Every structure is written in structure tokens, then in C-alpha cells.
Amino acid sequence: MSAYGGTSLVGAEAAWRGLAALADYRGGRPSGSQLAARIAEDATASQSLIAIRNFLHEILVDARDDPGGAPVVADASELITYLQPTLLSGILRAEVDDHRRIELLEAAAARLSIPALLRSAASLAAAYNRPFPMAIRGCLRKLAQRALTLPAAERMEADGMLRSVLRRQFTTWTSPKRTGMTQGFEPVLDKLEKREPGRAVPEADRVVEMAIECDSLGAPVWVALHEVVAEGGVARVIDMVKTAPEHSAAAAAIMKRIGTPAELRSMLRAEPLDGAAVDALLRGMGIAAANVLLEELVESTARLTRRYLMERLARFGAEIQPMVEGRLKDQRWFVQRNMLALLRSARCPADLQVAARFLGNKDARVRREAVLWCLESPATRDETLVSALADTDPAVLRPAMQSARSQLPAAAVPVLARRLLDAGFPPEFRVLAISLLGRSGSILAVDALLHFVQNGKTLLGRPRLAAKSPEMLAALSALVRGWPGERRVLVLLELARKSRDSDIVAAAILPVEEAAA
Amino acid sequence: MTAEARDRSAELLPGSAAGEDSAMEEVEAVAWIQSEVAAGRRLPLLEAEIVVDTLFTELRWGGKPPLPLVPVHDVAAFLAVQAVNVSGLAMALAHALQFEHAAVRRVGLAGLLHDIGMTRLSPGILGKPGLITPEERAEVVRHPIEGARILLATDVSLDLAAVVAYEHHLRMDGSGYPRLDYPRSAHYVSRLVQLCDVFCGLYSPRPYRVAWPLEIIVSFLAERAGFEFHPTIASALSALVQQGAADRAAA
User: Fold this and answer.
1) Which of residues 155-214 of B touch A (CB under 8 A)?
2) Within chain A, which residues score under 70 in pLDDT?
3) What is the per-residue pLDDT across A328-349, written as a single tens digit (0 to 9) for each?
4) What angle do CA A499, A501, A504 make, to 5 degrees?
5) Among A55, A80, A322, B199, which residue carries the largest CB count within 10 Å?
6) Which stretch of DSSP H or E encloses residue A465?
7) Does B136 touch chain A (CB under 8 A)?
8) Distance CA A39, CA A45 (A)
């Protein structure tokens, strides 16, 4: 039993009768024009826009598989053709559910007669306040004329073209928002259907090249880029971008799209490394590339690649400090060494809390990098220098000695003095150490310097000069400059000035200009 | 053009004395589309497709020959008229060259929009009597780039139209504009639309010259085929328009 007028009808016919009942039509089964006239007369029916719309939905959508539905669709088409324009606009706008509205409009575009379809198009344009110039209506009329008048075989094709453009027109006008096809990569790819190659389809490479040349982007570019990448053409894209102007927004955006960690990793592992190509990729990826570069720095066995990676990572500056410090937890010596070296070359501010455990590391190569890093920061330099001067490894000692040339902190004097007297202190640093102690002016240095100038005492208890050596001459020279009045020094200086060796005499005399100063 | 291609052309373009103003709706529609773009609004793509579909059906079933083209009534309508003429002629030529129907319509859309970058020219440049200044010339030379930008920003389906807009002033010998950073030859459809553009331009009067007779244009295309124009397409176009003229004369 149908709800419509107590009849036993079903499907499209039942919906048509229901619509007639709504309009209180009492003359049997109405035609479309009769029902349109009745709806115009009946105030209740003309205000029941949603109800009318629902009946049309049943006829066109719900009963689309109804084998007896065609005459009813013809009646509905006639109804639409005869309905008052404002009423038709209201009915077409009545649906608030986006899905149901689009469903009805698509069914209308597919099933209504062409006059009803054109009428609906005009009403929809008015209802949704869409520009619909008379000239476009004229074009549609031409299409409609072909669809109505051509021989059957050709009519189908013309009919299909008209319905296709109107269907798209309806959905464009009534969609709640634009498709977003031009707004980004993912929305485009979600809807992407692979382009079939053909004479009227440009090659994907051409589209990407053009986009870079005119510095412009859009959905066609993203689709083309996706195609190039999918067929393994990343290197080609990078070649294009390499020659793009430096500030090309399109090139940067394209590189950002293709600059994935996997792609970067693959390029870094290629032999030989194409540095220019990787640079192009890095420009697009920015700091997002840092972790991959760090991973490869840890794992790469190619010296040239590691050097390249260090250099590129350093360009990120202090921004990478947290990532690098995180990798210091790795216990492998070469990882710790590389990370410390990177912290220095990226000019990351030294942190003694971080560095402390590496300044005492059992591996001299690690200690050396920790020292180099911490010596560069004024906040950590002096403390590091004291620690490094005590180091027994020449590779660690060397940078400390070089740093001490500029300024030897007071706390380092006793350390260096002690090391100088240590038999294991590398001979290559002795003269420099003596010179540094001499310049320190600290009384704590005197004993160490005297050690190189005096060689015990004579039988009569007088001090005896040590044999001439570079260390002896340096110590003598340091003493005459720093402590000429000190009692033990004075005695030795007098002895030296009486020496038959002119080098010893010269070392014990303050040059005239220094004396004058 | 092969005999088979000529047959297809005849199928598409049976000669008739169709009225010269029969495409005025299309011209008005294109003028509106161009005005929307000139005003900085989004290109009304669907409306452009409606125009192309209309031209396509008229070519296919309306018995409309490629000649005479829609005449230029006034300078203001010049761009729209040229777009409609190029679109129609390009579709006829593509069909003659055995493109599939869907491809013919894509070519038609590319032809319709090939000069859309001209809508961004400063007012007064288009249709200016006499010589344009170097600054104005620089603007004109940029219209392929502007066109490509407009089309790339509009819709995923406009890849061919964007390429054609960008390349339709590139010549076979590498001259023309814009300058390419990545050396490559223009797409086949760009060459096809270029020829139609040149043909329609010469066949229509300009503020500074009268329209060229058909025979002179055909000679002009033949002389430059191979170094300025694509030789096969130029030959096919000449055959098509001469056939159209003959059909008209017979009608």
C-alpha cells in the first residue's frame, strides 16, 4: 500500500500521484502542464518546496531503475518546463543536504528532457546568483538544437555533450566549495586519473619545464610532476631546477614536493655523488633534510660523501644543534667525533655540560674534537684549555697549545709548568710552553723555567748553567724578560752573560728596545 | 595532406554558405570570458568548454566551412573573434589530421584560450593604430607567459591549453618568444594553433592593413614552411582552407 492517495502504485508513478495529491489535483492523473498550473494555483502546494523536491527526487533518483518510469520522467520534464521560474528556483534550492542536492541535479542532467534541462539551468543560475550570460545560453541553445534535430545516431552524441556540460555546470554552481584542484598537490592526486598519452596531451616534462620557466604553478603542474616522479624522472626534474633562477618560487615549490627523505637518501648513496643535484634537493627541503644527512654521515663509508655531508650540515648553523647532540649518545667513536666536529663547524655554542664527558673520553680523536669545539667559545675556552693542556695525547695538546698562544689563563700556568717538567711532555711543544710560561708573568712558572737553565751546582755550591739547547735559550730569554730581579734568576743571568757562547749571552740580555720600553 | 585526411576533412566540413554571423553567440561568450579574466576573476572554464562544444557541433554537423571566418566587426571584439576563429579552424585542422574527437575538442579549447594572456595587456595596446612603443612591445611579448600562468592556475585539464598559450609564438627555427631556458621544440598542437593564429590574423583586416587574399596567405605559409612553420601542418592547413573556399564557391 502506497502512502500516496491510498493507491497500490509503486516507483515513479506512485511519486507522481503523490505529487498530484500534494497539489490537491482532482481530475485524475495530471499531465506535467496540468500539474504545473495546479501548483501555481494552490498556495499550500506552492509553499511546499521541499515536498515537491522530494517527489522529484523519488522520480528521478530513487526510481531510476523503474522500468515503467520513462513516461513519468517525461511528465516531470513537462512540469519543470511549465513551472513558474521563481517556483522552480525555490524547488531546486530547497535541498540542504549537499549529497542529495548533487544527486538530484546529476539525475536531472541525465534524465530530464532537453527543454526542461535548459529551463533548470536558467533557474539554477538565478537561484545561485551565478553569471550566465545570454551568449552562453545562446551556445547552449545551439547545442540543444543539434541534440534535438540530428539523426538518431548522431543525436546521442550531441545530447551527451550537452548533458555533460550542464551536469558539470550544475555541480559547479551548487557545490558548497571549490574542488581545491589548484590549491595543492594532495587534493589533485586524490582525484588524479592517469593521463592517457595522446597527440593532444603534452609530455609531463614539458609542463614542468614550462612551469619553471614562467615561474608559475597549478594543478596541471602537480599532475605532470607526479607523472615524471612516478616514472623515475626525479633526476630530470632536478636538472631542470638546477638551471632555474635562484629565487624561482615554482622551482622551490617543485623541489619541496619531490624532496622526500627517501629520495634524498637514494641520491646520497649514489656513486659518484652528484653534489649539484643534491644541493638542488636540499634547497627545497630545508632543515627537513638534516636528519637524513646526519644518518648518512653516520653510515657513509665514502670519505668524499662524508666531507660533503659535513659541509652541507654545517650550513644549517645552530638550528641543527639539538639533532646533533641527540646523536652524541651513539657510543661509536667516529660518530661522536663527527658530531662534535659538526657542532664546531656549524658554530653551535659550546656547552660544557654536553662536552664534559667527551673531554675525558678514552679516545683521543673524540677528546680532540671536543676540545676544538669548546675552545672556540669564550664561555668554555679557559676551562677547556686547562683540561686540554693536561692531556697526554699530542693531537689534543696541539690545539690547546695553539690556543694558549693568544692568552694563557692563570689557572693553566701551574698545569703547563707541571707538564713541562714531565718527561713525557712532547719535545715539539717544549719551546712553545716555555715561551707561554715566560709571558704569563706568574711566579708559579719560574721553577719550571729554571729547570731548563740551571744544571745543578758546582762543588763550591754555585749554580751551574745547563748545556745550551733550544729549551735552555728560550727559558733564559723568558726569565730575563719576566723575572730579571728575582734572586735565583739574577745569579743565572750573570753566569750566562759571562758565557763564551754568544747565543747564551744574547739570550740573557734584554734587547735595547725592550729595555728602553 | 593524405587523401584519407581530405575525406575526413570533407566529412567534417562539407561546404555550405553558412551565414557569416552564425558564430556571434560564441564570440560574445568568449568576449565575456575574456572580460572575466581581464577583471582578475577566475577563468570560466566550463563556459569556455561550452563554446568549444558549440563550435565543434557546428563544424561537425552544421556544415559550416572554415571559410569565411567570423568577421571582425570592431577592435573591441578583435580578441574574441580571433579566439573563436582560431579555435574553429584548429579543430577543423586537427580533425583533418586525424585526431580523435576528444583530442579535437582539446585542441579547440587550446585554440580558444591561446591568447588569453592578452587580456592582461594595458588598455589601449590592442588595436592601437600605428607602431607600439618598446614598453608596449615588451608587454605584448609577455602575453604567452601570462597566458600560461592564467591557465595553469585554473584547472588540471588545461595542461595542453597552457602549453599552447606559452609556445604559440615559438618558431620551428628556434626564434620567436618567450625565451626558453630548456631547449626543446614546441608541441605539435602549439605549432598547429600557431599556424591557425597566423592564418586567421592575416585573413582578417587590421587597423593598419587590409585582409590578405587567401592565395597570398597560402604562398606565405608555403614559403616559410620548414623554418618558421611546421611543414606538414602548414600544407594540411593550406589544403583545408583551399578546399573550404572551393566548396563555398561551388555552393
Assistant:
1) 155-160, 162-163, 166-167, 178, 180-182, 184, 187-189
2) 1-10, 46, 176-195, 517
3) 999 999 999 999 999 999 999 9
4) 75
5) B199
6) strand A463-465
7) no
8) 6
